[in-house]
Specification:
Strand content: under 5%
InterPro entries: Flag_MotA_CS, MotA-like, MotA_ExbB_proton_chnl
Protein name: Flagellar motor protein MotA
Largest sheet: none
Subcellular location: Cell inner membrane
Mean pLDDT: 89
Oligomer: single chain
Organism: Helicobacter gastrocanis
Main location: membrane
Number of helices: 10
Low-confidence stretches: none
Radius of gyration: 26 Å
Length: about 260
């Protein structure tokens, strides 16, 4: 669970609500059903126009990692790679075949399978580089959808406000109803801005940033596969892979 996402959204909405209350307002009045209907579905649908259908699907599928951390554990991955390196160093690369078949991650399994099958290092690297590039494009497209939605929401908030004002001005003979209509119209502006800067935009940027962790793990796995194929010493390979762990995080060596 990513508390920074959950707390960020909650505290952003809370701070706006508290400020409104201190000014004598009522945050409940900002929640306007017609404004929500005009802005949220319209924004999400319009953002599909500038996004590849493949990435639209990815955007909704991967939105979960905004609130749930991706299953990336560099320390465990390094441990597994070093274990495989030790086996290969001791018994040869072919000894990895049974162990590789049990690997769940497609990228890792395919990479090790290629070196077990005797593929040359250049071919292995080229193949996995393409896989990494495609994965990067996948997450970039998914994040782009939400960022586009964040950029579009304030404009649709303005559209909602104009529509509300047009209806309100038709009630000139009823000043109280016109005033209520104008107040309701401006809730669309607030809704659009909040959706942009508290929800959609941050969703896209958080998705883009978290995808970097996933990609870093893949690059590290590729480095490990190449090291094993080259016959690198497991201790030296571990030292190289530990450099992928961010500063401030513990780096545990199996050889200490």
């Amino acid at each position: 669970m990513d508390l920074s996402s959950l707390l960020g959204v909650f505290l952003a909405i809370t701070s706006i609500a508290v400020g409104d209350i201190l000014e004598g307002g009522n945050p409940i009045h900002v929640i306007h059903l017609s404004s929500l209907i005009i802005i949220i579905p319209t924004t999400l649908c319009a953002s599909m126009v500038s996004t590849h259908a493949h990435h639209v699907k990815a955007a909704f599928k991967e939105i979960k990692i905004v609130f749930l951390n991706p299953k990336v554990n560099l320390q465990d991955t390094i441990k597994n790679i070093v274990e495989l390196s030790t086996m290969a160093r001791k018994d040869g690369v072919l000894s990895l075949e049974s162990r590789v078949a049990q690997i769940e991650d497609d990228f890792t399994r395919n990479g090790f399978s290629m070196i077990v099958d005797g593929k040359d290092i250049k071919s292995v690297q080229e193949s996995l580089d393409v896989a990494i590039e495609e994965l990067e494009e996948y997450y970039h497209g998914a994040a782009h959808y939400w960022i586009t939605a964040g950029e579009s929401a304030p404009t649709f908030g303005l559209v909602g406000a104009v529509l509300g004002l047009m209806l309100a001005l038709q009630k000139l003979d009823n000043p109280p109803a016109m005033a209520a209509g104008i107040a309701g119209a401006f809730t669309a502006t607030v809704t659009g801005i909040m959706c942009s800067y508290a929800l959609f935009g941050p969703f896209g940027n958080k998705l883009k940033n978290k995808s970097k962790d996933i990609l870093k793990e893949k690059v590290m796995i590729l480095e490990g596969i190449i090291g094993i194929a080259n016959g690198d010493n497991p201790r030296d390979l571990e030292m190289k892979l530990l450099n992928y762990i961010a500063p401030g995080e513990p780096k545990k060596s199996q050889f200490e």
